[in-house]
C-alpha cells in the first residue's frame, strides 16, 4: 500500500468539515505522489521463479537486486486517450495578470482557513494507532536498512572448528557412497534427491537445474585392439567423445604424449603421421594427449596406466573423456536445456581420431614386442623393468576399433542457498561433482560429503549462534562431471550474462583428497592472499603445526600454487565466466590416484592417505569454511587486485623482449610498437594501486562505501575475458588464464613461431592479436578505475606528448 493512502479512521467528536478536509488532503497528497513517482521501491529480493512452461522440474534462478524492474502495471495506459486529444488553450491564459493574482490569493486564503479548522478539530481528539488489514502481495516492505551485527572473526573460527566434525563427515561417507551413480542414471538421481532432502532439513531454499546432454556409452560390441592381427586382451574401458571409427597404423611409443614429448620425437626424425600412438596416463589429461597426437596427423591414440605411476591391478580398466573443453560438446557456448532449439553444432575440441584406453596387461603385451629404435633417455622407467622401451617399427601394426554410442542423458544439478542478510543478490558458490563411472569415492563421494557437512555447519551457526552472513552462499551438486564438467558448464552457459556481476567467487570440492604428502592449489590471483592467510589459521591433520608451516615453506606460492588448467574443475568458472575461483587438494607425491577406475574406493583412499582420510577431510572442510566465512562476513571482499599486476607485468616483459629480438633480426617490422601495451600495463598498475589506497583510506564499517569498492573488485575478472572472441568458438576467453589465440601466452608462442620461421607464423595475425590483447588489458584497467574511454584517451595522448618531448 502506498504511503499516501490512509485508511478511513472514524474519530468521535470530529466535525464533518474536518473529515471532508482530510479526504481532500489525502486526494491532494495522492496526486502529488503520482506526479513525483512517489511509490516506494522494494528492497532486494532473492527469488526462485518456477518455470511455468509445462516442465516443473526446471527452475530458473533469479538472484538479483534488480527486482525494481518488476513494477506493478496498474494504471499504465489509463490516460492514453487523453494524450491523443487535441490541445485547447486554457481560458486561464487569456486572463489579465491582476485576475490571475487575485485567483491565487483566494486559493491560498481558503487553504489556510481549511488547515486551521482541521488543526483545531484534531487537537481535542485522542490519538489512535492506525492499522491496516490490507495484505501486501509480492512486496517487501521498504524499511530502513539497519546494520547487521554478526559474530566477530575469532568466534566464527572457533564455531566452525567445533561444529565441523569427523563423525558427521564419516556418516556422510556412508550415506553418499554408491557403487553405481554414473551421470543420468537412477543412482545419480537418487543421490541428487538425498542431497536436496538434506538441504531442506537444514532449512535452506532449494531448486534444481535440468539439462539434456549428449555423452558416449560403450556400444553393443566392445571396442577392440589388435596387434599384428591378434586381439589383445579384453577392452572394457572407453573414452567418451572419441571419434567412432576403425583405423590401423604402425605403433609409436610417445611417453606421456605431451607437446615436448612429440618435439623430442621430431628432433630424432621420427614421423608421427599415420601412427597409432601409445602414451602413458598422467601429467596431462587425456584430451590434451589426443589433441597433441592429432595435430601431427596420428591415426589413433592408446592410453595405458603404467605401473610407475599407478598402483592398480594389471587388468583394471580405465575410463575418461577426450573432449578438449568442458560442457556438452554438442551445444558449444549455449546451455543444453530441453527447450533449446539450435541447429546441429559441435565443439572444436572434439577429436577427429579414435582414442581408447588399455590395461596394464594389454600394454605389456604390446610394448614387450615393439621393434624399432630405442626410446630416448628417461622414457623406459615403467613396466618393462630393466628393459629399454622401443619406439616401434613399421611391422608393428595396431588396429583400433571404437564402437561407442552417442546417447542423450537427462541430468540434474541441485542447489541449496543460504541467503545473505545485507547483499542477498551477491553470492558465492561451493560446488562438488556427484557422479562417477565406478565407485568414485575420492572423485565424488568425499566432495559431496563435505558439501553437505559445510551446509549443515553454516546453517547451524546461523540458526543457533547468531551468525548473519552479509552475502549469500549457494551449495551446488553437479552431475556429469566425469564427462568434462558438463553439468557445471551448462549452468554457467545458462546464466552467462548475469553471473560475473552477481557471483563473486567459486570454490570446488572435487578431488580434494587423494593422498596426504603434499598440498596443492590453483586459484585466481585475487584469492592468493586469502588462501595463504587461511592456511596459517588451519591446523595440519596431525595438529602439530599449521597447514602453512607444514606444506608452504619459505616460498608458499612456489610450493603450493600450480597453474590452472583444463583438468581443474574450476577452469570454466574462471576462464569462461570470469569468476574468481579456488580449488585445492591433498595429494600423493609418488603415485597417481586411480580416478576413473573401479579401484577408486574408500579402502584404497585410506591406504593412499595412510588411514587419515577423515582427518584430511576435516582439515579441507576448515579451509573451505574459513575462506567462505571470510568472504561473506566482512563488509569488504578479501580479494587483492594488485596480484594481477605482477602477472601482467611478467607477460609484457616476455613479449617486449621477444618483440625487440625479432625486430633486430628483421623477422618483425619496426611498426610493431610496445607503447600501447606498456601504457595498458601502466594503467592497470595505477588503477590497482589507487584501489588499494582507497581501501586503506576508507571506513570499512561503512556498508555502502564497501559495496562501491566491492563493485570495482568484482569487475576485474570479467574484464579480463576477451570481448573480441565468441564464446561459441572459444570457450575460455580469459586472456591471462584461458586458452586460445587471444591470450598473452599465445602471443609469446607466436613470437617463438616467428623466430623459427614456422608455417604457423603470420605477422598480420600477430598484429591483430597484439592489438586486441592490449585493448582488453586497458579495458580492465578502465573498469577497475571507473574511467571512461575519453578519459583514458586524453591521458594517453598527454603521456605520448610528454614522452616525445623528452
From TrEMBL:
GO cellular component term, pick one: external side of plasma membrane
PTM annotation, UniProt: Stearoylated.
Entry's localization field: Cell membrane; Melanosome
Spans through the membrane: 100-120
All residue ranges annotated as the PA domain in the record: 248-309
Domain Peptidase M28: 413-608
Listed GO biological process terms: intracellular iron ion homeostasis; receptor internalization; transferrin transport
MF-aspect GO terms: transferrin receptor activity
Membrane topology designation: Single-pass type II membrane protein
Entry-linked SUPFAM superfamilies: PA domain, Transferrin receptor-like dimerisation domain, Zn-dependent exopeptidases
One Pfam match: TFR_dimer
Top-level taxon of origin: Eukaryota
Family annotation (InterPro entries): PA_dom_sf, PA_domain, Peptidase_M28, Peptidase_M28B, TFR-like_dimer_dom, TFR-like_dimer_dom_sf, TfR1/2_PA
Keywords recorded for this protein, A-Z: Cell membrane, Disulfide bond, Endocytosis, Glycoprotein, Lipoprotein, Membrane, Palmitate, Phosphoprotein, Receptor, Signal-anchor, Transmembrane, Transmembrane helix
Principal subcellular localization: membrane
Domain spans labelled Transferrin receptor-like dimerisation: 695-784
Record's function text: Cellular uptake of iron occurs via receptor-mediated endocytosis of ligand-occupied transferrin receptor into specialized endosomes. Endosomal acidification leads to iron release. The apotransferrin-receptor complex is then recycled to the cell surface with a return to neutral pH and the concomitant loss of affinity of apotransferrin for its receptor. Transferrin receptor is necessary for development of erythrocytes and the nervous system. Acts as a lipid sensor that regulates mitochondrial fusion by regulating activation of the JNK pathway.
Subunit: Homodimer; disulfide-linked.
PANTHER family documented for this protein: N-ACETYLATED-ALPHA-LINKED ACIDIC DIPEPTIDASE (PTHR10404), TRANSFERRIN RECEPTOR PROTEIN 1 (PTHR10404:SF26)
Family of the protein in this entry: Belongs to the peptidase M28 family. M28B subfamily.
Protein name: Transferrin receptor protein 1
Organism: Cirrhinus molitorella (mud carp)
Amino acid at each position: 500500500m502506498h504511503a499516501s493512502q490512509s485508511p478511513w479512521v472514524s474519530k468521535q467528536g470530529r466535525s464533518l468539515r474536518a473529515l471532508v478536509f482530510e479526504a481532500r488532503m489525502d486526494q491532494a497528497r495522492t496526486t502529488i505522489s503520482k506526479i513525483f513517482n512517489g511509490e516506494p521501491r522494494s528492497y532486494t529480493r532473492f527469488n526462485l521463479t518456477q518455470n511455468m512452461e509445462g516442465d516443473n522440474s526446471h527452475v530458473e534462478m533469479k538472484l538479483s537486486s534488480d527486482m525494481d524492474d518488476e513494477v506493478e502495471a496498474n494504471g499504465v495506459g489509463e490516460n492514453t486517450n487523453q494524450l491523443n486529444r487535441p490541445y485547447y488553450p486554457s481560458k486561464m491564459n487569456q486572463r489579465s495578470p491582476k485576475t490571475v493574482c487575485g485567483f491565487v490569493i483566494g486559493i491560498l486564503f481558503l487553504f489556510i482557513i481549511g488547515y486551521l479548522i482541521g488543526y483545531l478539530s484534531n487537537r481535542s481528539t485522542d490519538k489512535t494507532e492506525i492499522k491496516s488489514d490490507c495484505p501486501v502481495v509480492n512486496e517487501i516492505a521498504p524499511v530502513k536498512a539497519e546494520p547487521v551485527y554478526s559474530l566477530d572473526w575469532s568466534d566464527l573460527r572457533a564455531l566452525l572448528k567445533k561444529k565441523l566434525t569427523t563423525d558427521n563427515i564419516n556418516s556422510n561417507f556412508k550415506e553418499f557412497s554408491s557403487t553405481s551413480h554414473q551421470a543420468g542414471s537412477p543412482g545419480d538421481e537418487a543421490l541428487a534427491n538425498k542431497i536436496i532432502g538434506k538441504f531442506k532439513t537444514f532449512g535452506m531454499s532449494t531448486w534444481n537445474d535440468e539439462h539434456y546432454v549428449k555423452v558416449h556409452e560403450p556400444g553393443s560390441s566392445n571396442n577392440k585392439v589388435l596387434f599384428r592381427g591378434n586381439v589383445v586382451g579384453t577392452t572394457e574401458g572407453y573414452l567418451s567423445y572419441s571419434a567412432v571409427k576403425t583405423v590401423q597404423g604402425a605403433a609409436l611409443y610417445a611417453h606421456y604424449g605431451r607437446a615436448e614429448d612429440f618435439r623430442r620425437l621430431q628432433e630424432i626424425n621420427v614421423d608421427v603421421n599415420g601412427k597409432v600412438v601409445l602414451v602413458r596416463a598422467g601429467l596431462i589429461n587425456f584430451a590434451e594427449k589426443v589433441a597433441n597426437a592429432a595435430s601431427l596427423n596420428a591415426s589413433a591414440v592408446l592410453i595405458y596406466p603404467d605401473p610407475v605411476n599407478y598402483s592398480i591391478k594389471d587388468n583394471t580398466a580405465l575410463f575418461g573423456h577426450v573432449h578438449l573443453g568442458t560442457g556438452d560438446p554438442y551445444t558449444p557456448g549455449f546451455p543444453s536445456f530441453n527447450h533449446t532449439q539450435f541447429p546441429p553444432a559441435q565443439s572444436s575440441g572434439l577429436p577427429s581420431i579414435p582414442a581408447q584406453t588399455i590395461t596394464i596387461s594389454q600394454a605389456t603385451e604390446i610394448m614387450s614386442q615393439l621393434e624399432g629404435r630405442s626410446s630416448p633417455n628417461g622414457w623406459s622407467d615403467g613396466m618393462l623393468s630393466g628393459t629399454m622401451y622401443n619406439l616401434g617399427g613399421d611391422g608393428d601394426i595396431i588396429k583400433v576399433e571404437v564402437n561407442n554410442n552417442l546417447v542423450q542423458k537427462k541430468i540434474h544439478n541441485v542447489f541449496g542457498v543460504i541467503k545473505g542478510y545485507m547483499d542477498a543478490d551477491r553470492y558465492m558458490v561451493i560446488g562438488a561433482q556427484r557422479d562417477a563411472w565406478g565407485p568414485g569415492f575420492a572423485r565424488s563421494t568425499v566432495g559431496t560429503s563435505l558439501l553437505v557437512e559445510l551446509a549443515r555447519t553454516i546453517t547451524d551457526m546461523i540458526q543457533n549462534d547468531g551468525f548473519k552472513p552479509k552475502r549469500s552462499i549457494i551449495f551446488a551438486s553437479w552431475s556429469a562431471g566425469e564427462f568434462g564438467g558438463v553439468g557445471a558448464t551448462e549452468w554457467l552457459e545458462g546464466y552467462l550474462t548475469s553471473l560475473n556481476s552477481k557471483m563473486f567467487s567459486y570454490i570446488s570440492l572435487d578431488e580434494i583428497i587423494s593422498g596426504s604428502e603434499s598440498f596443492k592449489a590453483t586459484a585466481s590471483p585475487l584469492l592468493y592472499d586469502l588462501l595463504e592467510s587461511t592456511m596459517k589459521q588451519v591446523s595440519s591433520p596431525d595438529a602439530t603445526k599449521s597447514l602453512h608451516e607444514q606444506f608452504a615453506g619459505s616460498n608458499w606460492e612456489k610450493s603450493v600454487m600450480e597453474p590452472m588448467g583444463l583438468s581443474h574443475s574450476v577452469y570454466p568458472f574462471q576462464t569462461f565466466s570470469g569468476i574468481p575461483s579456488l580449488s585445492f587438494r591433498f595429494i600423493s607425491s609418488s603415485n597417481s590416484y586411480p580416478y576413473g577406475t573401479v579401484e577408486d574406493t574408500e579402502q584404497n583412499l585410506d591406504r593412499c592417505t595412510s588411514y587419515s582420510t577423515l582427518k584430511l577431510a576435516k582439515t579441507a572442510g576448515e579451509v573451505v569454511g574459513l575462506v567462505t566465512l571470510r568472504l561473506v562476513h566482512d563488509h569488504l571482499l578479501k580479494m587483492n587486485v594488485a596480484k594481477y599486476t605482477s602477472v601482467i607485468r611478467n607477460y609484457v616483459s616476455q613479449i617486449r623482449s621477444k618483440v625487440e629480438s625479432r625486430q633486430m633480426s628483421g623477422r618483425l617490422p619496426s611498426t610493431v610498437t610496445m607503447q600501447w601495451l606498456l601504457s595498458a600495463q601502466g594503467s592497470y598498475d595505477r588503477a590497482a594501486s589507487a584501489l588499494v589506497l582507497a581501501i586503506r583510506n576508507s571506513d570499512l564499517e561503512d556498508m555502502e562505501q564497501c559495496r562501491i569498492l566491492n563493485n570495482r573488485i568484482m569487475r576485474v575478472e570479467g574484464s579480463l575475458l576477451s570481448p573480441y572472441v565468441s564464446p561459441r568458438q572459444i570457450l575460455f576467453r580469459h586472456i591471462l588464464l584461458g586458452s586460445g589465440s587471444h591470450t598473452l601466452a599465445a602471443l609469446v608462442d607466436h613470437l617463438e613461431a616467428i623466430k623459427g620461421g614456422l608455417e604457423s607464423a603470420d605477422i598480420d595475425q600477430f598484429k591483430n592479436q597484439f592489438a586486441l590483447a592490449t585493448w582488453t588489458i586497458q579495458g580492465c584497467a578502465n573498469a577497475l578505475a571507473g574511467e571512461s574511454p575519453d578519459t583514458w584517451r586524453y591521458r594517453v595522448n598527454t603521456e605520448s606528448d610528454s614522452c616525445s618531448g623528452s
